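Margin note from the TA: students keep mixing up input and output lines. Inputs are the sequences; the output is the structure of the whole complex. Example:
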Amino acid sequence: MYPDYLAGLLKEVDRTRPKRLELAKSGNPVYPPMNAEERKDVLSKYHPDYSKGALQKIRVGPNKGQELTTEITELLEAHSMVEPRLMDIHLREPDYETDLLIIGGGGAGCWAAITAMQNGVNSMLVTKLRLGDSNSMMSEGGMQAAVAPQDSPTRHYLDALGGGHFENNPELVRILTQDGPEVVKELERLGVIWDKMPDGSMQVLHGGGTSRKRMVSCRDYIGAIITRTLMDEVHNHPDKIQVREFEPAVELVLDDKGRCAGAILYSLDSEQFLTVKAKATIITTGGFGRLHIRGFATTNHYGATGDGLVMAYRAGAKLAFMDSVQYHPTGAVFPEQIAGFLITEKIRGAGGQPLNKHGELFVFPREPRDIESAAIIRECSTERNNGIETYAGRTGVWLDSPLIDMIHGEGYTKHQFPGMCRQFNRFGIDITKQPMLIYPSLHYQNGGVEINGRCETNIPGLFVAGEASGGVHGRNRLMGNSVLDYNVFGRRAGRYASEYAKTVTVGKLSLEHVTKHVKELKKEGIETDLVSPMILPSYTPEDVKTQQLARLGSAPARHSMLRSRISPGDKKAAE
Amino acid sequence: MSRKPQTKVAAEKPSKTVKQTPPKARMVTVYIMGKRHVVPEHATIMRAIEYSGQQIIRGAGCREGFCGACGTIYRLPGDYKIHSGLACTTLVQEGMSLTQIPAVPMEKAIYDIEKLSPDVDTIKRLYPVVFRCVACNTCTKSCPQGIQVMDYIQAAKRGDVAAIMDISFDCVGCGLCALRCPAEIVQHKVGVLGRRLYGRYLAKESKELDARIKQVQGGEYDDEYASMMGMDKTSLSKMYYERDIEP
Ligand SMILES: Cc1cc2nc3c(=O)[nH]c(=O)nc-3n(C[C@H](O)[C@H](O)[C@H](O)COP(=O)(O)OP(=O)(O)OC[C@H]3O[C@@H](n4cnc5c(N)ncnc54)[C@H](O)[C@@H]3O)c2cc1C
Ligand code: SF4
Ligand code: SF4
Ligand code: FES
């Protein structure tokens, strides 16, 4: 239920709705989309990537000298969890051996295991939480794929490039858009239930930055439907795909020829470090929302701490576009319990409109995400002061959802957005009758480990796919392109890595790169108590954390989580 | 309880424009695995556990109600019932006594989706246990998603795959239904099977999709791709801003 002090503002929304509805039904744009100049202006003034302290120059490793997102630079300049000297015996006698090691149990990881299996190569999939506990499970709105007759893969290509400010790797975008239709079919073959029209054709909707209706969906549970289907398929082949949960990887292992040859895992149950020897390794560890970049609340799952970047970087892999972060325009602001939760962009695709406190539309609802987010931040800024404040000290704008039923007919919202309805019903808000309060929320890691069309990195034997990779989305990803990304590139990673695995014999295992990293830190005079990868963020209150850190002696293994500087209301982050 | 109440549970967004006037959080007493803790009233169960100083390892995944990692059972004072919910979306209440059930042992049937038929025979073969259902409705009562679980199990007994799919669509796989079921049925595994059978065999195929795949495979877009990939940023940008947008 909305508190009384918002009642007057809610009335404003009702007041302006009939006019806005009329315009929406007319088929014309409800607000003029921005041109290139306007986009540039709002981005440079209001997007968090451009705020003070957002970037920091990195002093070690392959990207040395470049400016990366500050929180990432700090993790890349941190210490390893592993003491290489103590791992010698285990490198000689690994705990596990497999042809293909897949790190990460989201959509990309599951696909990689399935295609490798189809290609006759057995794999071991290790993951931090349970299989499927990932951003893939959470995606709501949909996946872009040029399946409609009035659309084409090349149009999709142009939209994606424009969204990414023409900086995306064109080869990757071509693969992404060209494979889209086939991926839709493949998923259906595995049993994914697409939203369809009565004649069987795919239901398509708009997303931010799309010039054609291209978003295919499974109500608002696309992630749950696709990921559970893939997981089920992975579990159908226990003899070919070995799954190990709660054993995150914390360091890659190279061989004496500098090829990737597996990883060191850290068992969250026994706090042991375990060595895996593998002919090929795929990183599919997803994104970094849980680093709460710039102090933002996030839509991401618990384990999204950017571990893949840290491991790959220490082993010598190059990162791309790590100076750009995606903030989803519509994170929940009220009630406080769900602050940061994602409100799917499909709501705007279906006609929902962002409104300021006067009930006015102030931006074209389907601008690309970075533009839309910056416009919302501008509306709430001192310059305009048109945001709505909540008792918890957050500001936001309305997202007028009742419009949707008025456009598409009663019952549409309930059927298309059951998850959203449920989320708000819990707190007495009926989104078919009342708008939601929203503000941008940290959502996606635009950049990642640099890959080519075969998902190869600059380290032989190391492949990366999905959100952990960088290049395909440039500096801004469009809605629906990352579900497509993990499906397209997860499949490809499985195929190419398994082909590669068939050809190699692994040499002597080594953690020399970790020792080298320590030397480099020293040489640059970097003093840090931070240990990475982070594995899990800590939401323990500060005073308790201090008491926990008082432990002396051998560093507690959960060290990296405890030391995570991410804490509620972190002063540094909130600057 | 010596610790001062903390009101800020989530990371704050940076904003200089907002006056912070958070009301003092009211505190409630809860029992986490039997141990007394005082936590902010507006906390979810998950936040309360973390507020008490524990790092959750097994009972959290998405933290937003999608993954089912955080199944929790609890009792309330003066109420004999065992309630269940998701820790990430259920609010604490005064006197709540809770424990997490992050994993429920379940056996999944192994099958080749290509070799199944969408009917009752498949259900009988893969999950014969559903025929033990005594229609007690306990599963439905324990579902944090408000799903009519019993109804989809009844649908499974009839071999009505479309109904299994439709009713179980929002299942997050927390396993709370299976935990409480006196007949020891593995409901959500049956749900996954039903949905996959529907998607694979009963959903109407899209002719347009098949046509598009043929076009792609036939190389129909190759020239256009090649020409766009050869363009410089300025011409691409021009093309982009001039493209027509479907209403
Ligand atoms: C709430 C939400 C809604 C979204 N909605 C959409 C949408 O509608 N459309 C769209 O296109 N995109 C959407 N996205 C984005 C999209 O879901 C993700 O970008 C995509 O799923 C990433 O897939 P992935 O397989 O690369 O990574 P993930 O699915 O995140 O999987 C990463 C896996 O790696 C594991 N892992 C992490 N670190 C380690 C480690 N050190 N060792 C071992 N395992 C590790 C994780 O536990 C996880 O299992 C959404 C994202 C979120 C958070
Ligand atoms: S049907 Fe069972 S497993 Fe699925 S959400 Fe409900 S209680 Fe959880
Ligand atoms: S709890 Fe078990 S026995 Fe009872 S209705 Fe549900 S499935 Fe049937
Ligand atoms: S943590 Fe995923 S459902 Fe609660």
